[in-house]
Design a protein that fits this description.
Arc Repressor Mutant, subunit A, 285 residues, alpha+beta, 2 domains, HTH_AraC
Length: 285
C-alpha cells in the first residue's frame, strides 16, 4: 500500500514550502496503521486539487487548520467547508478541494481494520465523506490534539499516537472473520480476485458479502478491487522500468488498455499519460 493517495495537480502541492516528516507506527499497530505523515505548510497559495480514491481511511490530527478549505465541483459536497481534523473514509470517486493558507498536523493512514476498531461505527458512514475527528471521538479528540501540540517534536508526537491508538483499538470492534479474510485477499491480490470467488471462499452470497463489506469496510468488494487495481497500475507506471501500456493493463486485471484508461480517468480525473507528465504526485510512503 505504498503511496496511499494521488493528488492532481501534484506539482502545485509539491512546490508549496513545507516541512514533511514520515513515521512508521509501533508493531502493535501493524494491522491497523500504515504510516504517519507530519506536515507544516507555512503558506499555501489558493489551490484546487483532486485526491484519488484511497485504499485507506485517512485520519487527520490538525494543530493548525487552513483558514480556507472547501469541497468544490464536481464533488457532491461542493461549497461545504471541510471540517477541522477531517476523517476520510474509503472513496469510489475523486475528492475535489480548494485550500489556502498555513496548515500543520499529522495524517494517519489507517486500514479499515483499524478504523473500524477506533471509531466503533459502520464504516459506510465514512464512505465518500469528510467528518471531523471531534464529531467521531468527542472530548478524546480534543485531548489528543492538545497532548500532540505539547510534545517537543514529530517523533515524540508519533509515539503519543502509538500509545493512544493501541489503547483504543485493543478493545474496539473487530471485523468478522469472513470480511477480514476477504479484505486481505483483495488487497494482497491488488484487486484481481473475482467477487464471486471471494463469496464462495467465505461461504456467503455475493449480496451478503457486499452488504457486510459496506458495513465493516465502507465500500463493496467490487469498488475496493477497482481502487486496488488503480494503485497497482500507478506503482507499475512509476517504477524504474515501467512496462508497456498493454502489459500494465494485463498485469492489473483490466480487460485492455482502453479499460485501464477509462478507470484511471474516472478515479483520478486524469489519464495515465497526464499522470506521467507530472500533473499528479503520490502522497504518503
Amino acid at each position: 500500500m505504498a503511496g496511499w493517495s494521488l493528488v492532481v495537480p501534484g506539482r502545485d502541492v509539491a512546490r508549496t514550502p513545507a516541512e514533511r516528516v514520515f513515521g512508521l507506527p509501533d508493531p502493535r499497530l501493524a494491522d491497523h496503521v500504515l504510516t504517519y505523515t507530519a506536515h507544516d505548510y507555512r503558506w499555501m497559495d489558493p489551490t484546487s486539487w483532486r485526491m484519488a480514491p484511497l485504499g485507506v481511511v485517512v485520519v487527520s490530527v490538525e494543530l493548525e487548520a487552513p483558514p480556507v478549505r472547501r469541497s468544490t465541483a464536481p464533488d457532491p459536497a461542493a461549497g461545504r467547508d471541510v471540517p477541522t481534523s477531517p476523517v476520510l473514509g474509503l472513496r469510489d470517486r475523486p475528492w475535489t478541494v480548494e485550500q489556502a493558507g498555513p496548515s500543520r498536523g499529522i495524517t494517519i493512514a489507517m486500514t479499515p481494520v483499524g478504523a473500524y476498531a477506533l471509531f466503533g461505527l459502520p464504516l459506510r458512514e465514512l464512505a465518500n465523506a469528510a467528518i471531523g475527528l471531534d464529531d467521531l471521538l468527542g472530548a478524546q479528540a480534543r485531548l489528543l490534539t492538545e497532548r500532540i501540540a505539547e510534545a517537543p517534536d514529530w517523533p515524540a508526537r508519533f509515539r503519543l499516537l502509538d500509545d493512544h491508538l493501541a489503547a483504543r483499538v485493543r478493545h474496539g470492534l473487530v471485523l468478522t472473520r469472513q470480511v477480514h479474510g476477504a479484505w486481505q485477499r483483495l488487497t494482497a491480490s491488488a484487486g484481481r480476485v473475482r467477487v464471486d470467488a471471494l463469496a464462495d471462499e467465505v461461504g456467503w452470497t455475493r449480496h451478503h458479502l457486499a452488504a457486510r463489506f459496506r458495513e465493516q469496510i465502507g465500500l463493496p468488494p467490487k469498488a475496493v478491487a477497482r481502487v486496488a487495481r488503480l494503485h497497482h497500475a500507478v506503482s507499475l507506471l512509476t517504477g524504474a522500468s515501467p512496462p508497456a501500456w498493454a502489459d500494465v493493463a494485463q498485469a492489473c486485471g483490466y480487460a485492455d488498455q482502453s479499460h485501464l484508461n477509462r478507470d484511471f480517468r474516472a478515479l483520478t480525473g486524469c489519464t495515465p499519460t497526464e499522470f506521467l507528465a507530472g500533473r499528479a504526485t503520490r502522497v504518503g510512503r
